[in-house]
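Open question from group meeting: does this chain pack into something compact, or does most of it stay loose? Before anyone orders reagents, we agreed to write out a predicted structure and look at it together. Recording both the input and the output here so the notebook holds the full record.
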Amino acid sequence: MFHPLPVYIGLRYTRAKRRNHFISFISLISMLGIMLGIVALVVVLSVMNGFHKEIQERILGMASHATIQGANGELQGWPAVLEQAEQHPAVVGAAPFVEIQGMLTNGQEVSGAILRGIRPDLEDRVAAVREHMKRGSLDDLQPGSFNVVLGRDLAYTLGVGPGDKVTVVTPQVSVTPVGVMPRLKRLTVSGLFEVGMAEYDRGAGFLNIEDAAKLAQLEEGITGVRLKLRDLFGAPEVSRELAAGLSGLYRVTDWTQHHRNFFAALRMEKRMMSIILFLIVAVAAFNIVSTLVMVVTDKRSDIAILRTLGISPSGIMGIFMVQGASIGLAGTLLGALGGVLLALNLEPIVAWIERVFNVHFLDPGIYYISQLPSDLHWSDVGLIALSALVMSLMATLYPAWRASRTDPAEALRYE
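Structure tokens returned:
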């Protein structure tokens, strides 16, 4: 195939103006089909990568990369554990927390919630809560104030805002002269936050760690220590190293365990969408088969003359493989270039379309995202281009083999 003469003749056939313009039209359609399929595949995968990245940042902006907890759910002597965890080279931040599952009430409105006790001065090391504050400040969560910062949707459900009071009912009980009573505490709403994830906006709140410890009756203990890692994808390995290095019995978990099914579903969605869109490229690539079959039929006399001049069957096969591969290569290069340019400029293009046609593709009230995200991965582009080239080359094999089997005497009999 790569002998100079078959390559030269194959490229000559590709550039030549054929007598049969229908064949030229089919070749152009095949090339455009490959190009459009690759553009669609690159852009769709980039948008999916953008959505996945946006979701991952929203979840992991609030959740910890790794968590150290006591074996019985209560962590005593946490300053030593926190200091030891921060000594690990992969850990960039650590903060203590107390977690309470309770019920918030305001008049007739009731809603379950997870309340997390934090130290505002340390929380910035592990989570981006401060960046998502809509009203109030985390610094208002002072010891003894029993202030609480609620998710926006949770506050709306309860019908409260900054300055209002809510009552928290905890699972712990108090023994009184009249019997066992649930523990109740009035909290003052000091602020609201909005992450864009219902898990937090609808069911989470923050208060000072000392106030939370009193509610949970932990005294000097806490629930655990949250960690932020340098490389979040190395969380499982770092968790194992911390569990082995800590002196004592602790339970170390990471974000992949808490959100394993969700992120696995996202990966499966991307994989299935890739397979579906690859079918577009496959259909366009195998259009090359029909193109080359017609070319071989049209060039039977040329093939016979080349055979009589001494070109081997493998040389004939190489001529048409070069012709088909050149169509696939042109479509692949144009598609990859167009897909990359479109993916890199997708947000301003979509914004221009929305402005010109007065439409809005993503309603922030529904999706919490006002712009279409795009995150181009060059590895995806390379894999798409390589796959398209391989499919194009495979599509040339049968027509080229048929051309190599042409009998010169039979082809020239009626010429």
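Observations to bring back to the group:
Residues 6 and 311 are 9 Å apart (CA to CA).
The longest strand covers residues 91-106.
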